[in-house]
Amino acid sequence: MTEIDRDILRLLLKRHNLIERMRGSRPRLDASEEKYLREAWQKAVARVSRDADLSGRFFALMQDATFLPRPASPDAGAEGADVTPAGPERRDAFNLAPPRKPVELSLAAPLDCRETRAWLFLAAASGRPVRLVPCLMNDPLVDLLKALNQLGAAATRERDAVVTRAAEPLARPDKVVYVGDDLWNLFLLLAFYVAKPSRVKFLGETGLKLADLSSTRRFLPLLGARFINVIPRSSGLPARLECSGIVPGLVELPRDVPGELGAALLLAASFFEREFTLALGDHPQREDVLALALPVLRGAGIAVTEQGGRVSVQPGAPKIPAEPRLPMDAGLASYLLALTMPLGGTVRLAGAWSEAPEALAARETLLSMGLPLKDSGGEGGSISVTLDAPREAARLSTVPTEALARLSAGLAPLPLALAACAALSGVEADAPAEALEALRCPPALAADFFAAAGLELEDGSLRPSPELERDGGKGFNAPAWNAPSPSWALALALAACARPERCHGFRLGNPGVLTSLYPGFWALYNGLPRPAARQRDEAEAEAPRREHRRIRTATMAVLPPEPEADEW
């Protein structure tokens, strides 16, 4: 069986190399070439299976799969050697081995990425100037900025700020728009188009190609729009949106439709021609929708009322503040604060903690697992953690199940990482099945994560694996692990802070998965316990200021006369 799996991988690699040759210097295959390959694949699959995932999702995975470069041969370049050197020298995995010293970290907290993009959308769509700082210049934000500029916005990047200039409000041109790999970007632009007669085609990356947008497709006819998947038997992007512009005054959000689409409709409703009411009813993400949309709408001076789960938005131009005050990203901030659990020390993040349900659940989770948070509150406040020594006790069973259930997918790995830190420190730790179910975390994924951290999960108990406990003088060589999402990469980085002394570190095979969300994290992490960014800021603050002297003289400089130009 393993030999067959290796043969499949070799064939996939061969297919990848052939596609690279077909592509040449172009960024991607032509639409006609990709259509030919897809139709040939679907025809072959139809002979052996009726599985839609095999004919659609598997093909998308094959098209977008990436491989490491071929390792350079030691004989490459030798005289007479019949070896073709290929690619740069590759690194098998990224080693996670921060120093086991108390952390000293003080910085401005990363801002909530979704709310940042909500303000950027309102400002660009209304043509109003705004400055959002400090922003995480990650892929979702940059993708939305490019998409809005493609539609006529005047938005630019300035170091860690996003700035929009005064311009005409966005129209709804019939275009092909690239939205990246984030659902929130897609829903914001989809909601913006839906209120006027228009047609648009949305393109995206692998995540949106494999996303199940079937509930969105069924819901949009209620708004007078039609969402058509371009690829047959596909439920993701690319897709065409055709809008009649006739939006009813009252729409109920079905339970299976993502709450982010409801929030996007509320944000875009100020650009509708008449009052729009969204009935949330008993939608499972009702509180998340309200927490995301209402603060932004009210902060922009848009008339909005909410009663009994019905939110009504009046049309009108938003009044965008020059620099909106945004809360910190609860997910990224929680992982930074949790660094004190295995290392001790102090972490101070300047900013306001979000009042969204998932942010409050993250706070309750950290407190329940023994992290003493201190919130200064008020304007320009901060949240901090100080531990004189590492806190080894962290049991997942002490966290209320309701708090775990309210954690988003990006925060679900956090309590598992803290439990892993406790188990690696040699104290009793647990990850009961009830907690995994509340976190909506598949047991196989949790077991893979714990194995990458040198742990075993059995009957809800966590303990070091025999390889980690065995001290043969060579240390423990952890298996390389590919994190399925940025949050899982953060979780393994956090667990690596509690590794035993004899362990050389944990190995992450795809560190780039986190760079797309938090570009500066690895520089911060590799600089622990005292990141270089803070050292540089302190050095600049302590450096004496140079005074520029103006020298005045009584001599006046006179330019020599210019030679007369020759006449032609």
Explain what you see.
The structure is a single chain. With 568 residues, the chain is an alpha+beta fold. The strands form 6 sheets. A 4-stranded mixed β-sheet has the order 2-14-16-15. A 4-stranded mixed β-sheet has the order 6-7-9-8. Strands 10-11-13-12 form a 4-stranded mixed β-sheet, covered by helices on one side. β15 (373-375) and β16 (382-387) form a beta hairpin.
Distance between the termini: 88 Å
**How would you characterize the largest beta sheet?**
4 strands, mixed
Instruction: Kindly provide the radius of gyration, computed on alpha-carbon positions and rounded to a whole number of angstroms.
Output: 27 Å
Shape: globular
Tally of alpha and pi helices: 22
What helical percentage do the residues reach?
Answer: 25-40%
Fraction of residues in β-strands: 5-15%
How many beta-strand elements? Answer: 20
Q: How are the strands ordered across the major sheet?
A: 2-14-16-15
Secondary-structure class = alpha+beta
Mean pLDDT: 85
- Report low-confidence residues grouped into runs of 5 or more: 74-85, 534-553, 555-559, 564-568
Short description:
The chain is α+β, with helices and mostly antiparallel strands and 568 residues long. The protein is built from 22 helices and 20 strands. A four-stranded mixed sheet has the order 2-14-16-15.
Features:
alpha+beta; disordered C terminus
Q: What layout of secondary structure does this protein have?
A:
Elements: H1 2-23, H2 31-46, H3 52-64, E1 94-96, E2 103-108, H4 113-126, E3 130-132, H5 139-150, E4 155-158, E5 161-164, E6 176-178, H6 183-193, E7 198-203, H7 206-209, H8 214-219, E8 225-229, E9 239-243, E10 250-252, H9 259-268, E11 276-279, H10 286-299, E12 304-307, E13 310-313, H11 330-337, H12 340-343, E14 345-350, H13 357-368, E15 373-375, E16 382-387, H14 401-406, H15 413-424, E17 429-430, H16 433-438, H17 443-452, E18 455-458, E19 461-464, H18 466-469, H19 486-496, E20 506-508, H20 512-515, H21 521-526, H22 532-542
Parallel strand pairs: 2-14, 6-7, 10-11
Antiparallel strand pairs: 1-20, 3-5, 4-5, 7-9, 8-9, 11-13, 12-13, 14-16, 15-16, 17-19, 18-19
Helix pairs in contact: 2-3, 4-5, 4-6, 6-9, 9-10, 15-19
